[in-house]
Amino acid sequence: MLNQTRPAVVSMLLFTLLLGGVYPAVVTGAGGLLFPAQAEGSLLRDDAGRVVGSRLIGQVTTTPEYLWPRPSAAGDGYNAAGSSGSNLGPLNPALAERVTADADAIRAYAPDGAIPSDAVTTSGSGLDPEISPEFAALQVDRIAEARRIAADEVRAVIAENTEQPLLGFIGQPRVNVLLTNVALDRLHPVAAAE
Amino acid sequence: MNWQGWAEIALTLGLALALGWPLGIFMSRVWNGETTWLDPVVKPVERAFYAASGVDPRKSQTWLGYGASLIAFNLAGFLLLYAMLRMQGVLPLNPQGFSGVSPDLAFNTAVSFVTNTNWQSYGGETTMSHFTQMVGLTVQNFVSAATGAAIAAALARAFAGNRLIGIGNFWADLIRTTLYVLLPLSIVLAIALMGMGVVQSLQASVTATTLEGASQTISVAPTASQLAIKQLGINGGGIFNANSAHPFENPTPLSNLVTAVAINVLGWAAFFAFGRTAIARKDIRALATAAIVILAAGAAIIYVSEAQPAPALVAAGIENPVNMEGKETRFGLASSAAWAAQTTGASNGSVNGMLDSFSPLGGGMTMLLMMLGEILPGGVGSGIAIMVVMAVLAVFVAGLMVGRTPEYLGKKIEAREIQFAMVALLIVPLSTLGWAALTVAVPGGLASLFNPGAHGLSELLYAFTSATANNGSAFGGISANVPWWNGALGMAMLMGRFVPIVAVLAIAGSIAAKPKLAPSAGTLPTSGTLFVGLLIGIIIILGALQYFPALALGPVVEHFQVLEALAK
Questions:
Q1: Is A53 strand, coil or helix?
Q2: Do residues B233 and B182 lie in contact, with contact meaning Cβ atoms separated by under 8 Å?
Q3: Domain ranges in chain A?
Q4: Which of B178, B251, B329 sits opposite A123 (nearest CB)?
């Protein structure tokens, strides 16, 4: 066993240097050079340069003027420093309770609409930046009313921020909530953050 | 369910298999010490490794020497990683100011990454510093995969050779696989993934002021570099707690497709590399056929299962109540189902949706795919190695039926091979069910479970299945970061990794020493449809029968409870 010690220790240290030092440094350098915006987290800034969020990370919106995201199990909701799913099993009573409460909350502003599955389920990360087009459609009238604009204007903004599956079949159609809300604010500024 | 979903599943599974073919030829060249087009760049680095380590790469080792080198290397890796985890608080690149990791978590995590399991009892962004992630965990992501590949290379040589004493040089297999295969592919993949939106940052976090004026702290990390090898090395441990469900680790359907393919591609490549190195391409193609048939069936069952009405959604009057709990909008059912099958059929363990919230049969299927032995296609090399052991068992069973001495790839299969094959295969249920049973019995063992009822048992069974199979995925509700669980899961990972490795090396040593026989009229053909069918039968019977009683108490009973709830 003794003659194994040198190769084991030396190669382990060399691997650590190469794979733990050089490799991540090369990737970090390449990221800074080629894809700086993505590497730092696809951040969105307002006109003053303040970071308002990341286009990849959902955030809580509760005022009626904004598109609302899915329920989230990350902390108190969209805690981007602690991603998490709910991990509730299909028969866990807590799941049925939560889903029913969320469905009732949606019916309060959209009494007649059919509620899609994603509207009342938490995502795997708890940070899902997107919702289904069906869930977005349910919220159109609420947003239009709160902003006192035509529903078609809201629909147009949502459509602009909707992505279709890649090549028509890879992934799902989806609406980016934060991008939609930023676009809505551009179009019709509301007194936010009061 | 729709045609788009089926097409996506077929594309993801098929693309990995197709790309595995050319990569496998390349991998075989690397194992055989042949020249490659990377030589001008990589050869000097390879030579430096040999010179500094005092290794003669041409010196073929006996199976005992090969095994001793492997154990010594893994032990050195374990000790280094354990020390790093314990001393995290005083090491650099720790902008979050995380303190050292507790002894039981450090043991569990070090074992986990050295054994290519990547079970995570912790949440990444709330526990591990950038230094630990990069310099500790990323390194093991590479070398644990290369360790698995080394086993396959040794076994392939044993079958190819005629009365050999040695089965190759462990250090050469380890170093060459890492430098020629894993590292170049990871660099390319990591850069491509950053282009798709994956984060690579050494900041602790970014603070945003949301549209409604709240403050949101967004954790960032050197993700792309670790993600690339996490998938290619079939490791599975995420930088973030949510793993590949996290938008920074898997931002788009394209990144999902690419990383899903990466889960399986080197597993398949190792199949084809084995075929080329062992000079048995047709026979190995039969093994790959059996594996892809079972994997595709698994993915289909998960997809169908997740598309069934979920009881909680039906009760709330949801339109089209498919099971989106724990799944991301951009992925939906099909991407999540394909991933779940791929990550458990390989010993990867990364997740793009939370398996704990899957339907009983969907979640149960992921468990079964692990129980089948992590051979669909399994880890880099470890998958094909165990698959060959399965094939050896299949020819043995067939030999018993017709009363002939069984042969596989021109080597007689005798008592010694079958004894070690049984050791390699039976340690898995012994460890899985043994540790699960002990955990049910110890005081406080069940306190870690999150969900009530049959699903709670599934969480427990899943944890020990995953640990023993060196998979690393979890029914994530479980709170495993307590001393008993960290210790028991760590032991399960060690048993599931090193007992089969030693057994496979022993088989390799025994096979290598035998004369290579030409096939005769009495030889069972091991490349046709008949053999594929026999092999699938052996795999399923072995997996299903050993675990059926345990599965019946978990996912199966829960499925009937779901049906009962829906009938109300």
A1: strand
A2: yes
A3: 2-36, 42-187
A4: B329
Kindly list the residues from chain A whose CB atom is less than 8 angstroms away from the CB atom of residue B195: 34-35, 38
In Å, what is the CA distance from B158 to each residue of B326, B374, B509? 45, 22, 7
Contact B561 A127 (CB under 8 A): no
- Dump pLDDT digits (tens) for B458-498: 999 999 999 999 999 999 999 999 999 999 999 999 999 99
Please list every residue in chain B whose beta carbon sits closer than 8 Å to the beta carbon of residue A28.
200-202, 222, 225
- Show residues of chain A in contact with B126, CB under 8 Å: 81-82
Decide if B477 and A126 are in contact by the 8 Å CB cutoff: no
Which amino acid is residue B376, in one-letter code? L
Tokens describing residue B209: 């002021």
Structure confidence by residue, pLDDT tens digits, A97-107: 999 999 999 99
Q: How much is the ipTM here?
A: 0.96
Separation CA B454–CA B558 (nearest Å) = 6
Radius of gyration, CA atoms only, chain B: 23
Q: Which two tokens stand for residue B467?
A: 């640990």
Output the six-digit token pair for A166: 């890649």
Of B208, B327, B351, the CB nearest to A51: B208
How far does CA B199 lie from the centroid of its chain?
24
Phi, psi of B452, deg, nearest 5: -80, 165
B519 touches A at CB < 8 Å: no
Q: For the whole prediction, is pTM greater than 0.90?
A: yes
Helix residue ranges per DSSP H, B196-277? 223-232, 253-277
Distance of CA B344 to the CA centre of its chain: 7
Query: What is the DSSP annotation of B119-168?
Result: --SS-HHHH--HHIIIIIIIHHHHHHHHHHHHHHHHHHHHHH-SS-S---
Contacts of residues A35-38 at CB distance under 8 Å and 24 or more positions apart, as own/partner, are A35/B194, A35/B195, A38/B194, A38/B195, A38/B196, A38/B197, A38/B198, A38/B199
Q: How far is A4 from chain B (nearest CA, A)?
A: 6
Q: How far apart are CA B270 and CA B266, in angstroms?
A: 6
DSSP assignments along B401-431, one per residue: HHTS--EETTEE--HHHHHHHHHHHHHHHHH
Tell me the one-letter amino acid at A37.
A
pLDDT in tens, B255-304: 999 999 999 999 999 999 999 999 999 999 999 999 999 999 999 999 99
Would the CB atoms of A172 and B253 count as touching at under 8 Å? yes
Q: What is the CA radius of gyration of chain A?
A: 22
Terminal CA-to-CA distance of chain B, rounded, Å? Answer: 24
Contact B219 A123 (CB under 8 A): no
Counting DSSP H helices and E strands in chain A, the numbers are 7, 5
* Record: contact A81-B205, CB cut-off 8 A: yes
Q: Do A103 and B212 touch (CB under 8 A)?
A: no
Name residues 8-27 of chain A within 8 A of B (Cβ). Answer: 8-12, 14-16, 18-21, 23-24, 26-27
